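Sanity check. The docking grid for thymidine-5'-diphosphate depends on where the pocket ends up, so I'm generating a full predicted complex first rather than guessing from homology. Inputs follow.
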Amino acid sequence: MSQCRVCSAALEPVIDFGRMPIANGFLKDPKAKEFFYNMAVGFCPSCLMVQLTEAPAPEMMFNDSYAFFSSTSRAMAEHFRGNAEEVLARTSRSSAPFIVELGCNDGIMLKNLAAKGVKHLGIEPSSNVARAARQNGVNVTEKFFNAATAQAILKEYGPADVICGSNVFCHIEDINSVFAGLAILLKPEGYVYFEDPYLWDIIQKSSFDQIYDEHVYYFSGLSVRNLAARHGLELVDMAHQEVHGGSMRYYLKRKGVQAPASAVAEWIAKEKELKIDVIDGYRVFKSKVDVICRDLKALLVDLKAKGARVVGYGATSKSTTLLNYAGIGPELIEHISDTTPTKIGRFTPGMHIPVKAYEDLVPGGVRYVLLLAWNHKKEIMAKERAFQAQGGKFITYFPAVVME
Ligand code: TYD
Ligand code: ZN
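Predicted complex below; grid placement will be based on this.
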């Protein structure tokens, strides 16, 4: 029985996915030896944190060949420009505010502040994306954030007005040490915000592909409120985001600085409606996930039997979970189209589907596209109107398998 990383209580099992490769571990050579681990999710009945029961060492994921660059979609660039504007607006009354971002990736958010001469620091352990951030004019340190790093930053730069992170808090296994670091580095009146895929969206849509090695935690207002309280912090606001298939932005302050906004109680009530606070909610989730996998595979087998060409769209990290758990390989999906230079010419983790450069969908005679980058559905559908106009179909699968 594994233990909760936050409070040490025994975890209750949610789903065991079996052997899984590293989600972003695209292979140059499909015959190369691959690293596998057992991927399973557990629910803590005490502090309500949902988490992986086993997480591969961070060095396995966030290293010099980390294939994830944030700036791959226009909508994401827009989203992070918006985040930077919000930070500027909220700190406009502080003199010379200092902004710290954990996991600044290629600088998609901080470059907007750097361009305005705002004092900032990005913390990014993956050296290849950290380099990209520097090229974008961002001040970066290549470290993992924890209490010791927070002490060092405090000494060198002073306390932070804002500490933030997007799609990074849920990556860090020792989350108690991150929160200890926040409590060290934050100004008395400063605030923390972070956003990650939201458990409520995952349960509501059955979007289990958010579950993979990098995502150690699946946060909710309920679990974040408990976690913050352990470190003298308080969840004071929540704002739902469309990115990554439904994310939640959590705002924290030091305890007692600000009364929580009504959004906190409202979202927590919605979480309880979905039974995120009891194991029963997760039993329903598991059965829905298994139905989606069965239906999707049956559809692809049927299309293949009819001789139809099917390709994937977007070699996402999350598709590694879907493809491996449902058992969908190159015999069902010819290739996956992707615009990311570091993924093109490689093979998907585990299932070894070739990743190819983006080509116009219309001329090739492809009739069916499995929309693996479903979180960019709006942007992709708009770009691929001609494909649908000529009878092409997108296959989507959350909350149920459909062709549109
Ligand atoms: P991303 O949204 O980052 O998902 P994950 O966190 O699961 O990796 O990945 C989107 C992928 O889809 C990325 O590899 C780029 C690719 N993509 C395209 O190929 N074409 C597009 O039009 C868009 C929007 C994304
Ligand atoms: Zn716990």
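Relevant for the grid: The radius of gyration is 21 Å.
Also worth noting: The chain has a mean pLDDT of 95.
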